[in-house]
Amino acid sequence: MTRWKFFALCALPLGAAACSHKPPPPPPAPVLSAAEQACVDRTIATTGATAGNVSIVATGATKSGDSIFTTSVGNSEFTCVVTATGAIASFSHSTVH
């Protein structure tokens, strides 16, 4: 076998592997604010659900600046009001329409 053939047999696969594109990394997990995490934690404690099954949406704010969130697990929704200090002011089961 000539040197050229030997080089081609060894180098060609290595070159092709080096030029191949790697798949993009998965997107980072969403990071919840302290207020959102407090509501998710309360929902988990109330329902026994896992964190991956709880969804949360910011739905507004009170006149005093408290944040209002709606969490949901399956067919259950909860309204969670969190103060500026991160304390849960109220947590209640919402009616699903």
Commentary on this structure:
- By secondary structure, the protein is an alpha+beta fold.
- 32% of the residues lie in helices and 29% in strands.
- It has helices spanning 3-19, 34-47, and strands spanning 55-61, 67-73, 76-82, 88-94.
- The chain has a four-stranded antiparallel beta sheet with strand order 1-2-3-4, covered by helices on one side.
- A hairpin with a 5-residue loop joins strand 1 and strand 2.
- The longest helix is centred in the N-terminal third of the chain and has 17 residues, at 3-19.
- The protein starts with a helix and ends with a strand.
Structural class per helix/strand content? Answer: alpha+beta
Q: Span from first to last CA?
A: 77 Å
Main sheet attributes: strand count, strand direction, barrel closure: 4 strands, antiparallel
> What would you call the quaternary organization?
single chain
| Cα Rg | 26 Å
Write the element-wise H/E pattern from the N-terminal end onward. Answer: HHEEEE
| Beta content | 25-35%
Q: On the 0-100 scale, what is the average pLDDT? A: 84
Shape: elongated
Q: What is the helical fraction, as a range of percent?
A: 25-40%
Q: How do the strands of the widest beta sheet line up side by side?
A: 1-2-3-4
Quantity of strands, as a count: 4
Poorly predicted ranges (pLDDT <50, ≥5 residues)? Answer: none
Query: Please, how many helices?
Result: 2
